[in-house]
Design brief:
By secondary structure, the chain is an all-alpha fold. Helix content is 68%, strand content 2%. It has ten helices and two strands, in the order E-H-H-H-H-H-H-H-H-H-H-E. The protein has helices spanning 26-55, 59-92, 98-108, 115-138, 148-163, 167-174, 179-207, 214-225, 230-240, 254-262; strands spanning 7-9, 267-269. A two-stranded antiparallel sheet has the order 1-2. Helix 1 runs parallel beside helix 3, helix 1 packs parallel to helix 6 and helix 4 (115-138) crosses helix 7. The protein is globular, with a radius of gyration of 18 Å. The relative contact order is 0.18.
Length: 272
């Protein structure tokens, strides 16, 4: 179990977002914008999954998870709200969110199925977000210095994703979820997540008229495969999920704790 604090981030999301806010880099901006486009609908599903998974537990078991589930829902609801504001700025720039529509169609197929499938899907997605979060906290330079507000948003979001990385996983196990479906859903989510990320990033670049620039793809190669690149630095952590004895808490959350401690002036705990 984890104590999850719901925090109000002290950033002004009403101010416009620059076209290439992320280090004046077209590719990195398009990539992070693509991820933001996925969050409102995705995090609502995670909230629904954890809430329904909790409600489906025996009352004698619920007490063990109640506070953590409340914290998870509060954190994800705050992420959803801020990224909805973020995405409104992207709409004003003419960017079209295709990721959300595809996600809604897929989620419709899960209506009425065993809640363990919802939890397995959520746990798989939370593994992706947590390993990316730890990478981002280790390499904040990828966010650039042009927009301190957005850099703070992404790093705060990353710190909280690391904090609640095991909630859906633990609920899945509490329901007796087996390894076969846990790993089957992780393989599916890997393909879906990578495909949707690529599609939306390419679409953003096409709308930005930077898709076919050599500098765009040089940036992409460095971002993914350079010495501090996303794929290079997260592959082992991604692969760990296939271990039958794996638990999200096997991964250290030191960077999350350090960022939250060092940046107390950037947020205030809700209800404090």
């Amino acid at each position: 179990m984890t104590d999850l604090v719901v925090r109000r981030l002290l950033v002004d999301m009403e101010q416009p977002i620059a076209r290439h806010w992320c280090g004046n880099d077209a590719f990195r901006t398009a990539f992070f914008n693509a991820l933001s486009m996925s969050f409102p609908v995705g995090e609502q599903f995670f909230i629904d999954s954890v809430r329904e998974g909790f409600r489906a537990l025996p009352e004698s078991t619920q007490a063990h998870y109640r506070e953590e589930v409340q914290g998870f829902i509060g954190q994800e609801a705050t992420h959803r709200r801020l990224h909805s504001l973020y995405n409104k700025h992207l709409e004003k720039q003419g960017l079209v969110n295709g990721w959300e529509e595809r996600t809604r169609k897929r989620l419709a197929l899960l209506q009425g199925v065993d809640v363990r499938h919802w939890l397995a899907v959520t746990a798989a997605n939370e593994h992706f977000t947590s390993i990316m979060a730890d990478w981002m906290l280790a390499h904040p330079e990828w966010l650039g210095r042009e927009d301190a507000r957005l850099a703070t948003l992404w790093l705060w979001h990353s710190a909280e994703e690391s904090e609640h990385r095991s909630t859906a996983f633990d609920l899945y196990k509490a329901h007796g979820g087996d390894e076969t479906w846990r790993l089957r859903w992780f393989r599916r989510i890997t393909l879906i997540f990578l495909s949707d990320t690529l599609k939306q990033t390419v679409h953003n670049l096409r709308q930005d008229d930077t898709l076919w620039k050599l500098s765009t793809w040089k940036s992409a190669a460095s971002f993914f495969f350079g010495s501090k690149g996303l794929v290079r630095k997260t592959f082992k952590a991604w692969r760990d999920y296939f271990r039958h004895d794996f638990h999200p808490r096997d991964h250290d959350d030191r960077r999350s704790r350090e960022w939250l401690e060092a940046n107390r002036s950037s947020y205030t705990p809700v209800g404090a």
